[in-house]
Automatic annotation (TrEMBL), chains A, B:
Domain Nitroreductase: 25-191
Organism of origin: Halomonas pelophila
UniProt entry keywords in alphabetical sequence: Flavoprotein, FMN, Oxidoreductase
Protein name: 5,6-dimethylbenzimidazole synthase
Keyword Oxidoreductase part of the UniProt annotation: yes
GO terms assigned for molecular function: 5,6-dimethylbenzimidazole synthase activity
This protein's encoding gene: bluB
EC number: 1.13.11.79
Length: 241, 241
């Protein structure tokens, strides 16, 4: 890119930028396409390193990574899922309920590896820089690590699914977590037969992607963006699933 | 990559993978190096699209994007920061307190654009698929959108800084947010003179990166990973800042 203001001195070359955007747009929440092949240790190490390089409030790095390959532990986690999912299914009745029950919502036993990313709520002591106003900033930081790992996995050809239908207390007990360590994300990882070309919930007719233009505001809630050129640029984006 | 198990059918070509890892490892929380040049609308649209393609629980897409370029609004937000920061500084005394006061912790007025990413806690109705067990999953989803944007910005040569030293209630008032919309991330965006080669808090001696090997566990808290080859692979990672 040539820019008279030298704006893009630090921009990546085209292929590198493409790689990042591809990971973002082709990443999926995978529940069904797992293959049994194990993830080689070198690849897994890269994924963990990517997660570990997320930003964190006060550089507190509150995360830990628990790699769960034991069949027994996974069966106990799967039991927690089954209980919670039965409870959750009750919230949806009629056609919507029937659709809910048809959806596959986890791959705990089918994927070759489960990974729990936790948040140590006490790491860095009582006063973590930048965390006085919003005490949840440690949880938010841990989420950023999850997304780094998710994108890196996509680039490596590995699928990731986040199982959120779990009782956190029960999960903490199975994993032997101390009281100050919160099991933030329970992920299923593995190579996959394919990555779907759109989110599974959209394909199943559960919910569709919202138009981005409706989600962009200006200097206050529901104020239009000050620059009308932005609205045009959003409208001009290539359609994606 | 050739693999007898065909594991990597879906892996990206080298340059694309490199682009993603580069964004992950070279991304910074920027507070000081902002240039005044505006971000072109096409580039900004790409960043918002990247955020909008984050995963979200039940595909609820709870985020909204408020683009804040008004000087007046930013001055009001800056006032909130100043109040909160004075309060936070009191937690650190002695040498640590002196260091705290020397740190630059935001770029609200210097960056050409502020962006508030909010979380609509009611989007998708009362029963969002996958959110029954962990009601905060909507906030966590919004964090994943923040990280997508942060990485995309890095690839475009744009710096991002997250200002977490803000009273959320005061911020919501300035932005006119309804009660069910939570201002999750207040970000400063802009082209930068340079990206530092390590986190600013590490360079300033506030806190250093933790060894990744210490953060990796096996099938339970503080159990060693079942596969010793993983420990070796983690130890073999190239040193990074």
């Amino acid at each position: 890119m040539s820019d008279p203001n030298g704006r893009s001195d630090h921009a990546f070359p085209e292929a590198q930028r493409e790689g990042l955007y591809r990971a973002i747009f082709e990443r999926r929440d995978v529940r069904s396409q797992f293959r049994p092949d194990p993830i080689p240790p070198e690849v897994l190490a890269r994924l963990l390193e990517a997660a570990h390089h997320a930003p964190s409030v006060g550089f507190m790095q509150p995360w830990d990574f628990l790699l769960i390959d034991s069949r027994e532990v996974r069966e106990r986690v799967h039991d927690i899922f089954e209980r919670e999912n039965a409870r959750a299914a009750e919230a949806h009745s009629g056609e919507r309920g029937a659709l809910y029950r048809r959806l596959k919502l986890e791959g705990i036993l089918e994927s070759p590896l489960n990974l729990c990313i936790t948040c140590d709520r006490e790491r860095g002591g009582e006063h973590v820089l930048g965390r006085q106003s919003i005490v949840e900033m440690d949880l938010f930081s841990t989420c950023l690590a999850v997304q780094n790992l998710w994108l890196a996995a996509r680039a490596e050809g590995i699928g990731v699914g986040w199982v959120s239908i779990l009782d956190q207390q029960d999960l903490a007990e199975v994993l032997g977590l101390p009281a100050h360590v919160y099991p933030l994300a329970y992920l299923c990882l593995g190579y996959v037969d394919d990555f779907l070309d759109g989110p599974e919930l959209a394909r199943a007719g559960w919910r569709q992607r919202l138009p981005l233009a409706d989600r962009v505001h200006g200097n206050g809630w529901q104020a239009p963006p000050a620059d009308a050129a932005l609205t045009r640029a959003v409208d001009a984006l290539a359609p994606r699933q």
